[in-house]
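Translate structure to sequence.
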């Protein structure tokens, strides 16, 4: 299975893209110490001068920002923070939610319906609003400056963004575990004397492995989208630098992570669109790379297309719903 996974073109393409971005980000730090090259003005062919922000050109493929700083350099600096933070948050969500889901499905079985009813209410609360409420006191720089270090703020943010989704994910995994626990071979193992922990480790986890990998990929994508939402709310990964001078500059990212590059440059969407669109493009490319890895994993392990199956299931579900609605209409007409 492992050999076929690394030979799958979808998985390999997505993995290599993420690996190259992360390695390039660390290499940029080691070689250039995160120093960003700049270009303040150029001379056009007609002899006129053009100043920053400068549009994309061969030497600056993504152009420069309003200060003349290379957008590609800023992207490379922030790549390691953005991608690795999303991976860590997704991994922690799955790692914490799995044992809680097991407890809900096995030990709290009589209360599972009530617990799921309470947790379902979280689906109607915008996650970005909750995250903003909890993170604003930590990430928004006060007048006297941050009282915490960068890594302390990153750790707190990772923890909060992890815990916010744990109830919903625990309920989802609990339902999956409960479904498997009703299978006949689980009953046979119980009759033969297997304990609940052994059943979980030896029987349920192997069956859920593929599901957990897909959930992990989905959580990476959801975390990246949440970063974008927080960036538009000017709450950036690692902290938002706020200028309290008489003529202040707009809030900016402390780490140059990608959501900060969107939030502090969205005002240029119409005048210099390459500035906010560059980080948006890289966000989209990373989400696509994760989707390719998920598709490749399912193709290598199960032999079918993950997204084709999802599309087919949704189409058949919509068709079934439409058919049932038509039947109910006919019944009302008969009456």
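Result:
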């Amino acid at each position: 299975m492992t050999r076929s996974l690394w030979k799958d073109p979808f998985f390999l393409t997505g993995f290599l893209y993420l690996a190259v971005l992360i390695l390039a980000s660390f290499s940029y730090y080691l070689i250039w110490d995160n120093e960003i090259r700049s270009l303040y003005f150029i001379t056009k062919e007609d002899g006129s001068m053009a100043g920053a922000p400068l549009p994309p050109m061969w030497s600056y493929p993504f152009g420069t920002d309003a200060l003349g700083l290379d957008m590609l350099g800023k992207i490379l600096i922030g790549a390691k923070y953005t991608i690795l933070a999303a991976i860590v948050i997704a991994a922690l969500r799955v790692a914490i939610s799995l044992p809680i889901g097991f407890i809900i499905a096995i030990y709290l079985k009589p209360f599972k319906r009530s617990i799921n009813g309470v947790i379902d209410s979280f689906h109607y609360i915008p996650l970005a609003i909750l995250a903003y409420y909890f993170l604003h006191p930590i990430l928004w720089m006060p007048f006297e400056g941050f009282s915490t270090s960068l890594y302390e703020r990153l750790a707190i943010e990772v923890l909060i963004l992890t815990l916010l989704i744990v109830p919903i994910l625990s309920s989802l995994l609990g339902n999956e575990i409960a479904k498997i626990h009703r299978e006949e071979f689980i009953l046979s193992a119980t009759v033969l004397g297997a304990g609940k922990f052994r059943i979980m480790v030896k029987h349920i986890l192997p069956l859920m492995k593929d599901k957990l990998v897909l959930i992990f990929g989905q959580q990476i994508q959801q975390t990246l989208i949440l970063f974008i939402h927080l960036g538009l709310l000017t709450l950036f990964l690692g902290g938002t630098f706020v200028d309290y001078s008489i003529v202040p500059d707009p809030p900016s990212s402390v780490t140059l992570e990608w959501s900060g590059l969107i939030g502090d440059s969205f005002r240029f969407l119409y005048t210099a669109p390459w500035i906010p669109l560059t980080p948006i493009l890289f966000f989209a490319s990373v989400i696509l790379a994760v989707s390719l890895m998920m598709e490749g994993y399912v193709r290598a392990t199960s032999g079918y297309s993950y997204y084709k199956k999802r599309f087919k299931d949704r189409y058949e579900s919509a068709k079934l719903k439409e058919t049932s609605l038509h039947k109910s209409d006919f019944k009302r007409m008969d009456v």
